[in-house]
Amino acid sequence: MQIEVLKSKLHRITVTEANLHYVGSITIDEDLMDVANLIENEKVTIVNVSNGERLDTYVIKGERGSGKIGINGPAAHRCKVGDIVIVMSYATMLFEEAKKFRPSVVFPDTISNKLVR
To answer: CA 102, 8, 47 angle in degrees (round to 5)?
Structure first.
């Protein structure tokens, strides 16, 4: 049996830009992508803590070290600059493997979106 489990999570990051006239997706600072174990084009779920919206999209690399979190395309109607969001991705694995798996959960600084060390 296979199940879907949380693979990666960026917890409480701040939207820095919302660009309605873009193809779509979420742009994430490449440093945050690395530490959260996310890759470009990976499907993610965005949960908007500020307004309760929930949506699925895919990841685009943002400038490394920029703290950029950009909501692009139609999703920009559901998230605005300053909103606090949670970004999550999931993986499918065997049940026994999932019992031992530990997701990458990252708690960046909510103001700057930089890693807190």
So the answer is: 130
